[in-house]
Design brief:
This protein is an all-alpha fold. It starts with a helix and ends with a helix. Helix 1 packs parallel to helix 3 and helix 1 packs across helix 4. The protein contains nine helices and no strands. The radius of gyration is 17 Å and the shape is elongated. It has one domain: Alpha Horseshoe (Leucine-rich Repeat Variant). The protein is about 75% helix and about 0% strand.
Length: about 160
Amino acid sequence: MNTELDDFLTQLPTLLRLLADPMTPHTSLELWCRIKSFGWTECIPVLQSQLQIGSSDVKRLTLSVITEECNHFGNTFGEDFQEHIAALLDDEDRLVRSAAIQTVSELSIPNADFRLRSIVCNDEPILAAEALFALLETDKKLLDDVVQFVRDRSM
């Protein structure tokens, strides 16, 4: 295997941690370019791991990098992360949950509806509103049901 790639894979968790520090100027696009230059596929296990064990800042940065990849190459590139992203909807950190809601909405991640509905019903109002908007974007029948509900209540 490529020694340079091996070194990068070993250093990627540290790079994510350093760039996730709010005091470090960076962009997810910059990090995505670095990862892409070494090989997206090879970095998937490291990114998946960071979604599970990384700090809150690292999880949010990793979500941004995954979204960047999908924005450039289509949502199929996010399939390896769907389970991990959906799990972040239950994260203890509200900013991680918010970032996960946004990612679920942008990438139209299937099987996240139950968790989004749980956020709507049980989480703080701002996150509940974000989750509701994500549900409305991903479930067109729900939008029709909400419109009909409002119309029925207005009469």
